[in-house]
Write a structure and sequence with these properties.
The chain is built from 17 helices and no strands. By secondary structure, the protein is mostly helical. Among the domains are: about 120 residues, Alpha Horseshoe (Serine Threonine Protein Phosphatase 5, Tetratricopeptide repeat); about 70 residues. The longest helix is centred in the middle third of the chain and has 25 residues.
Length: about 375
């Protein structure tokens, strides 16, 4: 239900996709809807969204299909407004795990958009990003990387083509989030150098804009993970010391702001096999997180998983605690993202490895 409400919020405020004018798509001329038609379509759209938010998916889809038919009749089947409603309908299929149908529909929408308006026009960027999200929900990382790379290209092009300042800002604001998502996928695909570039660029864009928060911390964490996979320990330690020193000078509550650096140091220690030292850093991160978050938030769940891995790498007497943290991470991630999401499958794999290790005969 929480995900559905968040979905409704994004649809309502328009954060999921900055809209484009009808002039930006080369569709056939259409008759301007009357005030009564606009009112009827708006009411249908609101009803469909509300039904989806309440998990009444069949009723929601029925409303969307009536609305699509009306849009096609008034605006045309190829018009951006019609295609947008088709995408809105498909998003609710994710919660029903109708992934094959969703992919078929999204690719059908993308084919129309690329035929009518070009591969890198705004509407194609929306659908590319939806396809990337759909691939991630199915654990198809390589396919997701293809779609997310194409999305980044399209978003940059859209920002350059935008004539209004607020429109440019809207497109530009989506680029670092997409790069962050892409960096996580590339890490899982073993493309560590490219992952470092994408995470670093996302981080730089947010820092330039004066941003702060979980997304910026996640970008920094992905950059560190990619650097660790490339054995860049010296560069990481230099970065950490500089950042901690700077933030402790300029912030009175600098200990909170250095949480990402403790996390990065923990990952560095783990990569070097210094698991006792890494455990101390992981526990500092967990304590800091719990000052501001509950145990169901993403950053806490990731810290549980990091700590589980760290404890698993130590002596056998630590494995019971490792299993405890792995189970907490898995339960929270499955509840939030579903069992097939990459975050969830990663936690499940860690939990299963710990359970298998505990079942083995003790070493003499």
């Amino acid at each position: 239900m929480t995900r559905n409400l968040y979905h409704c919020f994004l649809l309502a405020v328009g954060l999921m996709q900055p809209e484009v004018s009808s002039a930006q798509i080369k569709s056939k001329p259409f008759r301007e809807p009357t005030a009564a038609q606009w009112a009827e379509m708006s009411a249908l759209n609101k009803e469909a969204e509300e039904l989806g938010c309440n998990s009444r998916y069949d009723e929601s889809e029925a409303k969307y299909r009536v609305l699509i038919a009306m849009r096609e009749r008034v605006c045309g089947a190829d018009h951006v407004d019609t295609l947008k409603i088709r995408r809105d309908m498909v998003r609710w299929w994710y919660y029903q795990k109708r992934y094959a149908e969703a992919e078929k529909e999204l690719r059908s929408i993308l084919a129309v958009e690329e035929r009518v308006s070009g591969r890198e026009m705004p509407c194609a960027a929306h659908t590319r990003q939806e396809l990337g999200e759909l691939m991630l929900r199915q654990g198809k990382d390589f396919e997701a990387a293809v779609e997310l790379r194409a999305t980044v290209v399209a978003l940059k092009r859209n920002a350059k083509m935008a004539t209004l300042q607020f429109s440019r800002e809207a497109w530009n604001s989506r680029i670092p989030y997409t790069k962050l998502q892409l960096s996580a996928v590339l890490l899982r695909c073993g493309e560590h150098a490219e992952a470092e570039v994408e995470a670093s660029e996302a981080l730089a864009m947010w820092e330039k804009a004066g941003g702060n928060g979980p997304a910026l911390d996640e970008a920094r964490a992905n950059m560190v993970k990619a650097m660790l996979k490339q054995d860049k320990y010296v560069e990481l330690e230099d970065q950490r010391r500089e950042r901690v020193a700077l933030e402790n000078r300029v912030r009175r509550d600098g200990w909170r702001e250095t949480r990402p650096e403790h996390h990065n140091m923990a990952l560095s220690f783990d990569a070097q096999g210094l698991h006792v030292e890494a455990e101390k850093e992981h526990r500092i991160v967990l304590a800091m997180c719990r000052c501001e978050m509950n145990d169901e938030q993403l950053e806490v769940l990731h810290t549980f998983l990091d700590l589980a891995r760290c404890l698993r790498a130590q002596d056998e007497e630590r494995w019971k605690e490792a299993l405890h943290y792995a189970q907490k991470a898995e339960k929270g991630l499955v509840k939030t993202f579903g069992a097939l999401h990459a975050f969830s499958t990663e936690a499940t794999q860690v939990r299963e490895e710990i359970e298998a290790a505990r079942k083995q005969p003790a070493k003499q």
